[in-house]
Amino acid sequence: MIKILVTLGPNSLSEDIIKKMDKENVYLYRINMSHTPIDKLENIINSIQKVTNTPICIDSEGAQLRNQYMKDEKAIFKYGEEVTIHFSDIIGDSNNISFNNVDGARQLSVGDEIKIDFNGVMIKVVETESDYCLAKVITGGIVGSNKAVSINKIINLPAITEKDKAAIQIGKKMGVRNFALSFSGSSNDVKSFRKLTGPDSLIISKVESLKGLSNLDEIIKESDEILIDRGDLSREVRIEKIPFLQRNIIAHAKALSTPVHVATNFLESMIGFYEPNRAEVNDIVSTLVMGSDGLVLAAETAVGKFPVECVCMIRRIIQQYNHWTP
Questions:
Q1: Element housing 313 (H / E)
Q2: pTM score, two decimals?
Q3: What span, in angstroms and rounded, lies between the C-alpha atoms of 90 and 270?
Q4: What is the DSSP letter of 107?
Q5: Among 10, 45, 170, 243, which one is most buried in terms of CB atoms within 10 A?
Q6: What whole-number distance in Å separates Cα of residue 63 and Cα of residue 201?
């Protein structure tokens, strides 16, 4: 049976909405630690468990760079302007920024190109010093707080952050046994993650980086399930390649008898509108035809206006797929 994985967030963390989504036979409710303060996690888990018996999955931050808080939650980066990348925690603005991992920032070198979020902002490192880097804005735009950062080379980051470790302990204490490892890069990453989550846990390894692609089969073999995050993967791979990589990853998972789920942009239109467009529906059906075992709703249900309608739409498409597919 094709599974639906639902990300809970500000627009769906309510008793009424969860109960309505539950009627569509949700497989897992996902808590994204990249957007969840650790001091709120226990209350969030408790509020979900009071409403439903559907299992919770804690999705780790993993080996990723994000910028830190920006003044007034956003700043405008203008073409040609100079930006200082600080190797310490600061409140960012139009000419200053810092990242969540200082060791990662220290690996930057002259010529490195840094993309921030999906809005197309790009800066290029022109000078490095002991406590900061200087960069020039190549493509301007708006930079918000806590946005994912991608660099045109591999940056060595810990697979499991201190925040992830704390989240795992809270989850285990509250009976959570499903955990997702973001940016899994090797079988050792998965093994280290399982040591923390415990032998009885279910591990979903997320394939969303070039490093993960290069070690795909060993990651699949160590995982209970895998998840293709097309959004983060498209930061490192040109977008026209994503459908073909998706097909290839699904084929590898199938060959190794490992369930595989796919995430990102399935119902992007429904973040703000009541119904999807035809391209999105076709994308969902194509993903099912490729052999995906599950579909993941992320922003659509976490911050979108119509979380319940998104889950109902996915269920209706799955029903049509089952009807038309021998």
A1: helix 307-324
A2: 0.92
A3: 35
A4: T
A5: 45
A6: 21
Return left, alpha or beta for 198; rule: phi > 0 is left, psi -120 to 50 is alpha, else beta.
Answer: left
Q: Is 175 left (phi over 0), alpha (psi -120 to 50) or beta?
A: left
Locate 153 and state its tokens: 């080379």
Residue 24: half-sphere exposure toward Cβ, Cα within 13 Å? 25
Q: Quick one: tokens of 173?
A: 């204490």
Q: Taking Cα atoms as reference points, which of 233, 230, 239, 245 lies closest to residue 209?
A: 233
The residue whose two tokens read 């509250």 is 174
Distance CA 156, CA 104 (A): 7
Give me the average pLDDT of each 10-residue run along the chain (326 residues): 97 97 97 96 98 98 93 93 96 96 95 86 96 96 92 90 97 98 97 97 96 97 98 92 98 98 97 97 98 98 98 98 93
Residues 6+ apart with CB under 8 A from 218: 186, 187
10 Å CB burial of residue 142 (0-12, 13-18, 19+) is: middle
Say how many Å lie between the first and final Cα of the chain, rounded. Answer: 14
Residue with tokens 């293709």: 228
Token pair 């996690």 in the structure block, residue = 41
Per-position DSSP letters for 163-205, written without gaps between them:
HHHHHHHHHHHTT--EEEETT--SHHHHHHHHHHH-TT-EEEE
Q: Any residues with CB less than 8 A from the CB of 89 and at least 6 apart, and which?
A: 68, 98
Q: Which residues contact 166 (CB under 8 A, 6 or more apart)?
A: 38
* Cα 237 from Cα 258, distance rounded (Å): 24
What's at 300, amino acid-wise? Answer: E
Query: Within the chain, how many helices (H) and strands (E) appear?
Result: 12, 17
Residue 166 near residue 90 (C-beta atoms within 8 A) = no
